[in-house]
Predict the structure.
Amino acid sequence: MMPQSTRQTPEPEGPSALEELARDPASRKGFLRMAGGGAAGALALVLSACGGGGGDQKGGGSPAAGDARRQRDQARPGGAGATREPSPDPREGTSDEEILNYALKLEYLDTAFYAAVIEADLFRGADLDMLRRFRENERAHLQAVTAMIEKVGGTPVKRPKTKFPLSSPGGALRLAAALENAGAAAYLGQANRIRSKEVLAAALSIHTVEARHAAALNGRLGRPTAPTGSFAQPLTMEEVLTNTQRFIVST
Amino acid sequence: MRRSYRKDHRAPSAPRFVDSGLAAVEVRGVTRSAFLLRSTLAAGTLLGAGAVGPFVGRALAQKGGRSADVDVLNFALTLEYLETAFYDRALKLPLSAEVRGLARTFGEHEREHIEALRDTIDQLGGDPVQAPELSFPRTREAAFLRLAQTLEETGVSAYNGAATRIESAEVLAAAGSIVQVEARHAAAIRLQRGLEPAPEPTDESLDMERVLEAIDPFVKS
């Protein structure tokens, strides 16, 4: 049997695309900046990114800037769109089993990452304590998500084989932060697509812990606690899976 | 190298009868949201932040449809009024530059949450509640951080508990976006206090029946 994760010789250091995606969702055309300030605009953009983008996120990609701007304008009090067009229900199109298996893939990735980073022996002291705790948390998430998939009558996907560039402590911490910020954004992106209240409650209780991990790692790197400001930004399944693909050796 | 974490690794959700400073926070007002916030703080004081989720979930379960979402949003708004006032007030306390900066940033986030929630309530055709009258104990930095942690953990639990009552997918997305920021605040404040940022794998709520049993004698309804 192959090891589940192996250390690898350096790639171009750092998490690059994933990191960029989670820290400042440039792929989403810098929503908050585009909003030009104002919480109403920011929230409307969250809504447009999360809820108004239609049911099928898989084929989607980023909503067009024009859509986002239109929704933002409508959200402004007294703006043109006092009554909004009904947007398609994001709960249609994807089953809870699919969403849970997507979460499971991310938890496999997180768990394998922390196992690899601890095995790589790059850290001591408080950093190592933190990484160990996060590994335990991710393992618990893995178990919880697997159990939930079985509960809804689904079949958990298999654990993929993974690889991570772990040549330096700094690079490892940046990758950890990228994975956790993206993980929090991934859960946020699915929250309003889940049908079962029980699955939703479980996902939310994991979501805020991924956010805690992300905040702690951001702090360790001297970065802002909440990189997108007052409103966390979601990522779609497609965005997350595309950008984590390079850590998957085989499924 | 950073200092090690303190020994206190209790979960934010663990039931505990510890003075978190929450009991000294006063919320005055006659709106349903002010009442609910008072009850929520009582739940948090008695049983810890983890008790707040089920309590809020139950309390908000009484309505249905669009007005249910307005009810949830007005409760969230009241919670954000509390947090904003708390951080505003903190700027008058004798705090280190680092903690003052944290209070300023987090307070700004909470203020934007208020603005966004009011606008969303307007959009749904509801009436945003007014801020209740609030008072906080005058404290030094250590007690300020302890209470800040409690309020943020209470916020996480309250949003998570309320979220399953939300009907609209858009409102749920917005609540998720806000609760993630509250959780980030909670983690940062825990670190500032020398505590683990994420001591438990989930921000899970305590069992509802157990919470209500413990709370009922203390909450007039």
In short: Chain A is about 55% helix and 5% strand.
